[in-house]
Amino acid sequence: MDSIWHIIVTATPQIALAGLKYTIPIALISFALGLILAVLTALVKLSPRHGWFSILKAIAYFYVWLFRSTPLLVQLFIVYFGLPYLKIRGLFPNGIQMDPWAAGIMTFSLNTGAYCAETIRASILSIPQGQWEAAASIGMNKTQVLKRIILPQAARVSLPPLSNSFIGLVKDTSLAASITIIEMFEVSQQIAAQNYQPLVMYSLVAALYAILCSLLSWLQGYLEKRTSSYIRPAN
Amino acid sequence: MIKFEHVNKTFADHPALVDITTEFKAHETTVIVGPSGSGKSTLLRSLNLLERPENGQYHFNDQIIDFAQPLSSKTILNLRRKTGMVFQDYNLFPHLTVVKNVMEGPVQVLKQSPADAKATAMTLLDKVGLADKADAYPSQLSGGQQQRVAIARSLAMNPEYILLDEPTSALDPELEAGVLRVLLELAQEKDSMIIVTHNMEFARAVADKILFVEAGQILFDGTPAEFFKQPTKRIADFLAAMTFTTISDKAN
Fold it and tell me: Of the four, A196, A225, B97, B232, which is 20 to 30 A from B8 by CA?
């Protein structure tokens, strides 16, 4: 039997490579897309209820409700294994087929977008009404007020909870193993199946996730410090 | 000249403005006084449409706005550009430096070049005595300094009227003086100002005209001389109450 040290030394590069090829890119791309979706959803949810905005609002509420009320693993299964059976004549006669990458990124984006939408909505609401009034009274239109005054301040407020969501997403990418993506957890499972050392392998992959997330926590601290420089007096 | 005619505004169930008719002349300083909750801030905020009265007419120079009709956002923005607003709690943009706060309107709204806007901003900051704080953030300034920046920010838009909503109510007396000096200077330069204040000494010093508002109604509309020298019973009571507050504040 291999020594534990030997297992760690040989398995770590393989798992790390899977992290670089799948875990990190999937998390980054999904989070970027999720954030765009989240900002749009938050703005729609905060918009006044009139005209075609009522329809958009209904869609936004339904979307957030749907993705927060069902398990991520089930969502992945529906998108990857289920949608191929959704045959729509004219549009998708052979069902909606996606490769694992596309299915994974789509599901992770939609899922994290639903959670982040609520974070962003709350941080926009946390900016005092006086900021809207001050910006409006120098003649700014709503888009200018949002872009120049509200969103930059809301971004600072939402940084800690958004970092939470991102760290959560990095760990949730391990679920992509179930839709045949060879990410970090899947690699550790495959190695464990060969060397019959599940405790060592799963502890090792846990440690690697922990290292990755610790780096992200540090990055969060750094960003918080940089974006908060205007809050407290210098010196 | 701007003018309100028969303007009404109701909040939930209580009337905030009741059949308000008055005018504000250009190059004059109008001071609005009255007890708390009397509707004086609502009156001021209605002048730049931060509040929307339900009906009545608003004359701004030759433009006539009927409050009973829906207003286009173009009308609203255009009117706000012509009326600068200074708030009780300053409402500076905390994420922008002092000079950027002053430049924001001219660059984003008036589409001035950043260089031009900066030159104007520095002149205005100099005028309010804060040129040396141009690169500081609002959180690094005292309340009085922040309010002077807010005045510079509203002046940067070159408004036809400057509206000030209790500009010194949040300030300690020694900080208040610096702000009042700036406003006195503007009054002497014949800027058009409309000021809501609780400071009667300041009102007396700066006003060309005084409005006394209570329960959403204008109970007095005239010169400071009339207001302070021949007050009605109600105004005399109000002034006595204000004096008592001032004395008790000083005693503390």
Answer: B232
pLDDT in tens, B155-198: 999 999 999 999 999 898 888 999 999 999 999 999 999 999 99
**CA B181 to chain CA mean position, Å:** 15
> Chain A residues with CB inside 8 Å of B91's CB?
128, 130-131, 133-134
- Interface pTM, i.e. ipTM: 0.91
**Tens digit of pLDDT for each residue in B24-64?**
999 999 999 999 889 999 999 999 999 999 999 999 999 99
Give Cβ neighbours of residue B210 (< 8 Å, ≥ 6 apart). B30, B31, B32, B33, B203, B220, B221, B222, B223, B224, B227
- Beta-carbon separation of A134 and B105 below 8 A: no
What CATH number corresponds to the domain at position A170?
1.10.3720.10
* Domain ranges (residues) in chain B: 2-251
Q: Calculate how close chain B gets to A137, using CA atoms only, in Å.
A: 5
Question: A102 pLDDT band (50/70/90 cuts)?
Answer: very high
List Cα–Cα distances, B20 to B42, B57, B61, in angstroms.
11, 10, 18
Domain assignment present for A214: no
Which of B112, B119, B47, B84 has the alpha carbon at shortest distance from B191?
A: B84
Inter-chain touch A138–B157, beta carbons under 8 Å: yes
Helix or strand run (H / E) with residue B68: none
Q: What is the DSSP letter of A95?
A: -
Q: Is the pLDDT of residue B205 over 70?
A: yes
Q: What is the H or E stretch that residue B156 is in?
A: helix B143-156
A231 pLDDT tier (thresholds 50, 70, 90): confident
The class level of CATH for B2-251 reads alpha beta
